[in-house]
Design goal:
Layout lengths: L9 E5 L3 H13 L3 E6 L6 H4 L4 E4 L6 H14 L4 E3 L3 H14 L7 H8 L1 H8 L9 E4 L2 H11 L3 E5 L9 E3 L2 H12 L5 E5 L5 E9 L2 E12 L5 E6 L4 H18 L4 E10 L3 E8 L7 H9 L3 H9 L14 E7 L4 E5 L5 H6 L2 E3 L7 E2 L10 E7 L2 H14 L3 E4 L6 H12 L4
Parallel strand pairs: 1-2, 1-4, 2-3
Antiparallel strand pairs: 5-8, 6-7, 6-8, 9-10, 9-12, 10-11, 11-14, 12-13, 14-18, 15-17, 15-19, 16-18
């Protein structure tokens, strides 16, 4: 939806974190925008609070009705010109606000819901065989077993709507599927069974405006066996491969009807059939990927979102540098932190950022979700390989010492933790 942009546009930002939030808010300040930042209590940093006109607290971003009600009240007092989100649990309420108030937003509610619902996305792609992955939405174990037999083992079993690699399982036979099924149902009653794809996995940061799609960066990944990501590297592929992926992403975004805004799309490049879509989100990537993008290419994903919101067509989405950037994560195990490393001046100067909030006495768990990782290091260098070696080297040289649990794990506590994660709660 297009509308005339006033001289001082009022933009509502529904949820954003970290570096990408800073990019957006700093650009808003430079371009004299009025910003209302809708977020959960305590989630807006003092630095970000200083860049906005007002912060509007809502108890839960996932409560779409409550967020829309807050926006309606704001709009009655201070008319809103545009609304968007830069985080997973904000995209749906942002689209609902736009629909309710009749104001522009990058991604419509139907497209947002298609991307957040993996089965619906698969249905849309079923008419695009070059992008399609065979999958089945299963309400019960027997349906899941039948789907696995059709596709052939191994298969992927995962929740229909979760994020952060939560409860994603590879199963190699019927016995493993029976064991995995209930674990996935703990997160989402709707269970997807999908064909297993072989090949390297990448995530693609893109930005779209009026149906033109620009690939900004491709990220390579390091993963655990349970698909939890423990490292990201930009650039993730040679330029020739990036050009091929840009064509795939353009076809995919056209297929789902997305014309504007940030997207973060995961693909697997198979040996026989080329790139296949794993999932996609109408927001920038998490895990500090927007920071890596800026370090490696100079492109600021949050700034692109702000400039598009205020009607700019000359978006700075082409790279102005070619370097490498990477992030690596500390991971733990069930136990208690005994000690955390100290970092000397030389180590800190080598790194772009060291973030290790773990402290002695803190309980640690096995890694079931991105939230379970202990901290991270960001490095930058001439290329991605050197950047990742830098970041990974700091983690290996500075371990977090954990005293392992002696008793049996508490299944009820583990289940409660997983269900919190599914709602986006720590």
């Amino acid at each position: 939806m297009k509308a005339e942009i006033p001289s001082r546009p009022h933009v509502v930002l529904v949820g954003a974190y970290g570096h990408v939030a800073g990019q957006f808010l700093e650009a808003a300040r430079r371009h004299a925008c009025e910003i209302s930042f809708v977020h959960e209590p305590g989630k807006v940093t003092e630095a970000h609070r200083a860049l906005v006109e007002r912060v509007i607290d809502v108890d839960d971003l996932a409560n779409v009705a409550a967020v829309v009600k807050a926006a309606r009240q704001l709009h009655a007092e201070q008319p809103v010109n545009h609304v968007l989100s830069l985080t997973e649990f904000g995209v749906e309420p942002a689209a609902a606000i736009a629909e309710e108030l009749g104001i522009p937003t990058p991604v419509s509610r139907p497209v947002t819901e298609t991307l957040r619902n993996k089965h619906r996305m698969r249905e849309v792609l079923s008419t695009h065989p070059e992008l399609h992955v065979r999958s089945a939405l299963c309400g019960g174990l027997e349906e899941a077993l039948e789907a696995a037999e059709r596709f052939g083992y191994p298969v992927i079993v995962k929740p229909d709507s979760a994020w952060g690699s939560l409860a994603v399982r590879r199963v190699d036979d019927e016995v493993a599927l029976r064991e995995a099924f209930d674990g996935v149902r703990d997160v989402d009653q709707a269970v997807l069974v999908e064909e297993f794809l072989t090949g390297p996995e990448y995530s693609i940061e893109a930005f779209s405006q009026a149906g033109t799609h620009q690939l900004v960066a491709v990220t390579a990944k390091a993963k655990l066996e349970n698909f939890i990501e423990i490292g990201h590297v930009i650039p993730g592929v040679p330029r020739g491969t990036a050009a091929e992926l840009a064509e795939v992403i353009g076809r995919f975004l056209d297929a789902v009807g997305l014309t504007d805004g940030n997207t973060h799309t995961e693909v697997i490049v198979t040996p026989a059939a080329g790139a296949r879509i794993v999932e996609s989100h109408s927001r920038p990537g998490g895990d500090s990927i927007p920071h890596l993008v800026e370090l490696a290419t100079g492109v600021r994903l949050g700034e692109l979102a702000l400039l598009a919101a205020i009607g700019r067509s000359d978006l700075p989405w082409n790279a102005d540098r070619s370097r490498g950037a990477a992030i690596a994560f500390w991971i733990g195990r069930p136990g208690t932190v005994e000690s955390v490393p100290e970092f000397g001046k030389e180590v800190r100067e080598r790194c772009v950022e060291i973030n290790l909030p773990a402290e002695a006495g803190k309980r640690t768990t096995d890694v079931r979700h991105s939230f379970d990782r202990l901290g991270f290091v960001i490095g930058a260098a001439e290329d991605g390989e050197r950047a990742f070696a830098l970041a990974r080297g700091v983690i290996e040289e500075h371990p977090v010492v954990i005293a392992p649990d002696q008793g049996e794990p508490d299944p009820s506590a583990d289940l409660a933790r997983v269900r919190r994660y599914a709602r986006g709660q720590l």
